What we know:
Function: Catalyzes the stereoinversion of LL-2,6-diaminopimelate (L,L-DAP) to meso-diaminopimelate (meso-DAP), a precursor of L-lysine and an essential component of the bacterial peptidoglycan.
Subcellular location: Cytoplasm
Order of helices and strands: EEEEEHEEEHEEEEEEEHEEEHEEEE
Enzyme class: isomerase
Bound molecules: 2,6-diaminopimelic acid
GO molecular function, one term: diaminopimelate epimerase activity
Pathway: Amino-acid biosynthesis; L-lysine biosynthesis via DAP pathway; DL-2,6-diaminopimelate from LL-2,6-diaminopimelate: step 1/1
Amino acid sequence: MCAAINTGAVLDVKGRERYRSRMIARLMNGAGNKFILADVRGRAGVFNLSADSVKAMARAHPFDQLLVLEDSDTSDAFMRIWNSDGDEVGACGNGTRAAAWAMMQETGSDTLSLDTAGGVLLARDAGPMSVSVDMGEPRLDWTEIPLVRPMDTLQLDFAVEKDGVRIEAPGAVSMGNPHAVFFIRDIANFPVTGLGPVVEHAPLFPERVNAGFAQILDARHIRLRVWERGAGITAACGTGACAALVAAHRRGLCDRQAMIHADGGDLSVEWRKSDNHVILTGPVEDEGPIELDI
Ligand SMILES: N[C@H](CCC[C@H](N)C(=O)O)C(=O)O
């Protein structure tokens, strides 16, 4: 899927060695959520990533998350995930769907497993340019979000205010990464860029948090915008969509399955009663190869 194209030194204008290698990676998106996908299976160590190198990559090729496929003894690959701010994180629903699609093109299989820091995820071809991923069980205890002190995650004892707009009592859910979901009456006129960062960096969340802002349209449709931890506003957020469905259903605001309408597209989420797993389904788009300096 991606290959090293050379390992010679790349010199900068002063003749200093800047990079040891270049490789071909792939630009992809899931409902507009933008990724760079790099496959280093069989070439461990070729990619020596640091927060600075990830940030430099994000400046050269804007993305929300960098996804790196590494060798795994138990799954088809181990996928590591970095936000564009350079922090490595545990889960990325849309990224998992995008990586699975690319791997399925290679193998011809219609199911596969991807191991991640947030757990082993099973992906399935869901039709042309569409992939489903089983995101596993939602984690709902305050220690699993995590929070700095005990609290009922159904609706947190938490409020923020900025420029005269006050929001409170979000639901908290972890899908392998932390989410706080606020229920808003009119999302079209809500200041996500104003309040998103205030929520992301609130002291209640020791690992920061992804801030979801959801408007319930009816029991099967939710409009959602997400200020992502370490990435800001994104066109869609897969784990955010899962968290919004779980938080809303826990409060009786929607069914166990709903369509989540993001800025960049629609994601179907089902919180399956039979095994408590959350299934995320939606579109993927292959934006083609890019050369990465690494
Ligand atoms: N866009 C990703 C979420 C990335 C979450 C990341 N921002 C974090 O810090 O957890 C998704 O589709 O699930």
